[in-house]
Amino acid sequence: MASSSASTTGSSTPQQSLMSQSQLQSQLEPIDISSHNFTTPSKRIHNQQDVDYFLTSPAYKLITTFILHLNASVSPLDHSTNALRNPAHYTLVSETTNVSPAVQNIIDLIHALDSLITQAPPDAGPRRFGNVAFRKWHDLVASSVPTLLDQHLPPYIASHPTAKSELLPYLLGSFGSAQRLDYGTGHELSFAAFLCCLWVLGGFEPGRDEIALTLRCFDAYFHLVRRLVLTYTLEPAGSHGVWGLDDHAFLPYVFGSAQLTTYPPSSSSGEAAAAAEVNAPKMVDPAVASALEDVPKPGDVVTSLVVERERVRNLYFGAVGFIYDVKTGPFWEHSPILYDISGVQGGWGKINKGMLKMYNAEVLGKFPVVQHFPFGSIFNWGAPSHSNHNTTAATTQHQSNINNSNSSSSTSRGIPDTAAPTSAPTTRAPWATATNNSSPASLSNTGATTRAPWAATGTPSSSVSITTSSSTPSTRAPWAKPPAPDNVMTTKPGEQPLTTAPWAAPQVPLYPTSAGMSAAHHPPPPRQLSGEDTVAPWKLGGEGGAEAVPPPPVTEANLGPKRTSSPDSRLAASLDGEEAEKRRGSLGTGGVRVAETGDLSLGRKGSVVKGENNE
Amino acid sequence: MMSDLDYAISQLRACKPIPEPAVRELCYKARELLIEESNVQIVDAPVTICGDIHGQFHDLMELFRVGGDVPETNYLFMGDFVDRGFYSLESFLLLLCLKVRYPDRITLIRGNHESRQITTVYGFYDECLRKYGSANVWRHCCEVFDYLALGALVVGAGSSISDTDEIEVEVVGQFGEVISRMKRPEPSTTATAIGGPPGSGASGSAAGTKGVNNGAVLCVHGGLSPLVDSVDKIRLLDRKQEVPHEGAMCDLLWSDPDEIDGWGLSPRGAGFLFGADIVKHFNHINNLSLIARAHQLVMEGFKEMFDSSIVTVWSAPNYCYRCGNVAAILELGEERSGAGVPWSATDRTTVVRPGPGRRYRVFEAAPQDSRGMPAKKPVADYFL
């Protein structure tokens, strides 16, 4: 994902993608609410190119800066000085945590939403999986949130005529999809965005509120979400089964690993021990030394007793504990990715850094996840809504290759080229063009052809009529919200959980599907649709695009943990010519961006995330 | 001496992957075999019909324990062997081995997850990489996927699952205990709604059909397509390709029945929703008594809909380690009385084809014995 999402910096140097310290600071600088023009956030991401653009947008910078800032704030290891602070002050229950009224207000808001669950008890009737009573809870939230915001936001925000309408969609998008009865990392991102909005509106105090926001407020949110998941048996949005990091959550693993970071990332246990040694003399405080011994090891996630102990203290273990609650069977079997990570030798700092990179690639860089993230004046799209502009030229070229093959294969099957929507208000499958948003679809069946009826731009005809309460074949991202309130696809309770078609978004169709094509000629899968986690880097080498050329075999040698070159450089090196150039550029954005900024947050070259010094 | 194939079977039954060259050889043989099959394989009853497996290998073993082993029991698997579970590879390769070893005793049809694109997203690709360090095995398997049949037609199913009584529906637990039985209503019975087997936990979902049996049972992973009005239309498709994003082949693997009239758009983004009228009309003009399909989790393992004209069979218990559902397989017996009339696509003398006798065996997830703890694998590049 990282590389395909990529790209904008095809011609820029890696340094350009680094945010300077001042940029980092300015990103989180409060805006003047009195003179600010708020807008109601709207959808901007309609396809993969838009995701590529998003990764260069001011909005992307803002959300990553915010997450990195919180991440650095809850790490016992001061990233700017490498000084070790008392790990005991960075647990979920640390009494030293200063919960200001501003943060407490948001926690109270979450508790208020939590208490609405009692007003929407799960339906007892027959159902397949997800419980429809979740929709009632969602309705209750939607109707009570305006009042709750008045009660719990700072008055200067709550009383502002237009600020709330910009905040609202982020909060309402934080709790799963009422339509599909599911929840995933896109909703989690929405909550982070809500807090981030409040941050830039000056709702919190830098240097004071970071720890409480991360370890108290987010924790309250995670607890609410878990209760929702359990109460209404919410399906993981886009479940990858055992091959995802987690069915529902990601940020607890980011912040939770930060909470446990006590020495800089190292690549081997030897280095880790050495790092610990180096740190040791600094620990004059015996309390710190003692607390250090209480820090769980990465391998402890497989020990249920330790998980039980640590889940109340740490976000990472809290998330793992929830997995233990809901899953039966061996941990290594139902959670192999987390199991493998538990064997990382470089310590929690290493894991934290990896989580940040993975979050960038697998959440922020994934079309299905971010497609419904709305953009307004705070999360600023920063450019015309469509992606055909200069900054995405590199990717667009790459993408258009795929698009061309798509359209040509489509054309060969009789779909008019005009079928591809370019500015549809909702994200739709590229072939799902006949239906418009408003009118009930009644589509002609084209009979002898193998086209799906909705691919026709035809007028209603008699042979097959498609009746649906929703005329929009909306995007399948499981957390996707209905495109418009009056256009909600009525999803029966029985429809979850289901496998959604990855191409159901105008994501790039992966394979030529023209009839008669021999199996041997299918190109290897492009990376856009790679699984939630480990896939992407490995598949890079296979994404040549040329048919009949199998991807170079990935061997143990280049997968092995001892490799010294970075994955990106290896992958780039395995390509040649123009493609390689594109890749390197693309990797510079998708793969490296957060890695680089992650380095920043880890204190490289004295770069400091703002707020850190206030500690 | 044990043949390579039998050795592979014994390895896979022990949940051990077989070497890459053996996979290549197996997949080659399987393709040779499958290429000869029709898009809609004709299968003679008795047969045991199974739904999604999703890499739940230990539960597949439980299925064989409950339903009988191959080749003693004749099986029909309706696809979705791979993705999501931890053992997609072992599960699919074992089924494939059994197919090559006993081609007339096991039928495999394609599910929407038997696809390059889907397996890249939902886990099978990752699994192959993890277990072999390369995508070669995944590639071999995907080539087999392209040759899997799109459906099957079960013919010669008996009207009762019992020798003595006219039992139409029986639900049996995993230890063979009868949970519920429902006699076939008298032919004179009017078409009023009939309750499900009491105590079956099947939430009244087995409604029963009236009259005597003759129609065939169409088995398909997802459901119907607006582009397919007859079984013969399925036979005309060129199936040897990646599952398309649209069209008849796509719909057969992606569609879902729903409580609607006619056709509806699927929330999945592929295939359609189709209502009772669609199913009844299709069954009537194709002389079918039942459509068996999989594709959707049902907490009780099976769910009959639309006056028992279609049934969902789900064979992955405690799906994804957390759904808490039971699994089911559907046994169709052979016609014992000799009164059965061979299936004919053109004989439409009866308005509503009565369903065959159906025995649902319901089972839970395999007990979690000490499956051992494997070595941790190298993590993804993010963590290097």
UniProtKB/TrEMBL annotation, chain A:
Region ranges (Disordered): 1-26, 389-501, 514-533, 541-615
GO molecular function terms noted in the UniProt entry: peptidyl-prolyl cis-trans isomerase activity; protein tyrosine phosphatase activator activity
Q: Where is the composition biased (Polar residues)?
A: 389-399, 436-449
> Where is the sequence biased in composition, kind Low complexity?
400-435, 457-475
Q: Which CDD domains match?
A: PTPA
Taxonomic lineage of the native organism:
Eukaryota, Fungi, Dikarya, Ascomycota, Pezizomycotina
Q: Which UniProt keywords apply?
A: Cytoplasm, Isomerase, Nucleus, Rotamase
What GO cellular component entries does it have? cytoplasm; nucleus; protein phosphatase type 2A complex
Q: Where in the cell is it found?
A: Cytoplasm; Nucleus
Q: Per its UniProt record, what SUPFAM superfamilies does this chain match?
A: PTPA-like (SSF140984)
Catalysed reactions, semicolon-separated? [protein]-peptidylproline (omega=180) = [protein]-peptidylproline (omega=0)
Name of this protein: Serine/threonine-protein phosphatase 2A activator
- Does this UniProt record's set of keywords contain Zinc? no
TrEMBL record, chain B:
* The UniProt record lists the keyword Iron-sulfur: no
Q: Does the keyword Plastid apply?
A: no
* Enzyme active site: H113
One Pfam match, given by its short name, reads Metallophos
**InterPro entries for the chain:** Calcineurin-like_PHP (IPR004843), Metallo-depent_PP-like (IPR029052), PPA2-like (IPR047129), Ser/Thr-sp_prot-phosphatase (IPR006186)
Q: What class of enzyme is it?
A: hydrolase
Q: Tell me the SMART domains matching this sequence.
A: PP2Ac
Give the record's keywords alphabetically: Hydrolase, Manganese, Metal-binding
Protein family (similarity comment) = Belongs to the PPP phosphatase family.
Q: What's this protein's name?
A: Serine/threonine-protein phosphatase
